[in-house]
Specification:
Elements: E1 5-9, E2 14-17, E3 21-23, E4 42-46, E5 52-56, E6 65-66, E7 69-70, E8 76-78, E9 84-87, E10 90-94, E11 103-105, E12 109-114, E13 122-128, E14 134-140, E15 145-146, E16 151-154, E17 159-166, E18 176-187, E19 191-201
Parallel strand pairs: 2-19, 12-19
Antiparallel strand pairs: 1-2, 1-10, 3-4, 4-5, 5-8, 6-7, 6-9, 9-10, 11-13, 13-17, 14-16, 14-18, 15-17, 18-19
Length: 209
């Protein structure tokens, strides 16, 4: 199984993800201090050995700090449990041991190939492993994904499939491969799952709407 990382914010809210993730305003908006963040301040990166690190990616005067030490631009610092990441008033702690989430997710949403001939969709599977119903919402942080139903409820011990659609914005994307980190955020009052999404644009063409 992929290693799931858990970050805790000042609010006590927990953030889960299992692959490379952006530290940005849209992904961490449950924290009040996140309003100061740019769209891409830094990236959390997981290597093949399931070791996590953080890379400062923003060309900005706002510095990311790890345990109080400034992170130079394009410099990678290994992360371990208990480490603190701070930027622009936002403070996140990497949990030493995974605080178990009540959910299991299918991982990155792959929308496949989009061309002028037809649109495409993606699917996110959510499994609730707890003994109580999970209630929350799913939102898109990018313009090219439409979430049909924002409010979600998953009964205890059950799994649900959420079918996602493309918006007209998908037809305006450049030809090529698009991997957006944290394109989807699955949120409850206590936790957020950040989910990546992939789309291959074959031929730029008319609206999918």
């Amino acid at each position: 199984a992929q290693a799931v990382v858990c970050l805790s914010g000042q609010s006590g809210h927990r953030y889960y993800f299992s692959d490379t993730m952006v530290l940005g305003k849209a992904q961490f908006q449950s924290e009040s201090a996140a309003v100061q963040l740019p769209p891409e301040q830094a990236h959390f990166v997981r290597d093949k050995a399931n070791v996590w690190s953080i890379v400062q990616t923003a060309f900005r005067p706002t510095t990311t700090k790890v345990n109080g030490q400034p992170l130079p631009h394009a410099h990678r610092t290994l992360l371990k449990g208990g480490d603190t990441v701070e930027v622009a008033g936002l403070r996140l702690i990497l949990e030493p041991k995974e605080k178990k989430s009540s959910l299991e997710l299918s991982g990155m949403v792959n929308f496949g190939k989009f061309s002028t001939a037809r649109g495409t969709g993606g699917k996110l599977r959510i499994k609730n492993t707890s003994l109580s119903t999970w209630d929350g919402r799913l939102r898109s942080t990018v313009g090219w994904i439409r979430v049909p139903t924002e409010q979600l409820s998953c009964p205890a011990g059950q799994q649900i499939d959420i079918l996602l659609q493309l918006t007209a914005e998908a037809g305006k994307l450049q030809v090529g491969n698009h991997l957006d980190y944290g394109a989807l955020a699955l949120e409850s009052s206590q936790e957020s799952w950040l989910i990546n999404a992939y789309l291959e644009v074959d031929i730029s063409g008319p609206s999918v709407e």
